[in-house]
Amino acid sequence: MAWNEPGNNGKDRDPWGNNGKNQGPPDLDEMLRKVSRRFGGLLGGGKSGGEIGRFGLSIVLVIAVVVWVLSGFYTIREAERGVILRFGAYSHNVEPGLRWKPTFIDRVIPVDVESVRSLPASGFMLTQDENVVRVEMDVQFRVVNPEQFLFSVTNAEESLSQATDSALRYVVGHTRMDDVLTTGRERVRQETWQVIDDIIEPYQMGLQIVDVNFLPARPPEEVKDAFDDAISAQEDEQRFIREAEAYAREVEPKARGSVKRLEQEAKAYKSQVVLRAQGEVARFSALLPTYQAAPELTRKRIYLETMEELYQQANKVVVDMPAGNNSMIYLPLDKLSGKANAVQPALPAGTPEAESIPPSNEGANSTPIPLRSGDRFSSGRN
Prior knowledge:
It is a single chain. The protein contains eleven helices and eight strands. The protein is α+β, with helices and mostly antiparallel strands. The longest helix has 70 residues, at 224-293. 52% of the residues lie in helices and 15% in strands.
């Protein structure tokens, strides 16, 4: 049952206290006058209205000033720099620490200037040889000028992203696909870094590129198997090259040692021949004055000395008998033959050296004997 319906034992539940009187909504003007009288007594509408009113107004003003002052304190962290906007215009920068600003006049925007931020870039790009590759790059940068970072361009990070994409497409477009995938990756990274710096420098974004990471590029999935085979072949090529270099490092010292040994042997042989020739010359020079003093006697002495040396090494016996002499001379041929065989040791049967030597006959075995310079001179004379 509603509060204003009859039948409630004569008690109408009227919230305005009309006791059953059926009236309209309350008078708003009357309510405002009541509120005005209450606050007017507090601010000067009472018995001592002027003093009490001024006191209340002072309290309100002091509270407002305290709240305004307290609301102006703020803190800038160690890695940040604060950018102050006064009535919406740039004023100055503030260093880390506890600071104060006039509220509703200054606005503080903290900017992190020490952290290194990362900006990825990727996409399918066309190479110089008209192939398509998927390239991914990660640009790392940090803020060096907070004012330029906030107000030089609309969005510094978005502008850097566009510059990175443009630089990457330019460099990849002037590079062959094999270089992008394998050996030319470092060159692509360096050139992209340089192009990004050239693009953002005129805009003065307040950014500094710290590093550019060129992630592994890959071909489209349709031709991935063929490119994997090509990369595997290139790796095998590099492996073979390293093996060849290792073999060269192993063989080269041995070859150098052999060359050095042959060179030393040649020098030794040269010295031997030169010294032998000098000895022959010295011997001939020493013999020449004697020959000039007594030619016939010298020739005969040289001849006899030469024949003596020959007969000492040979097993042949030559007997010069005068004509008409029938005397028999006993010669121990068996002892002479044994002495000649003892000069040359017997070789084992069946060896090539033994087969190459003809069988020796008694009284017919001879060995070659080198001639001296004097011998050659004597034989030439005869």
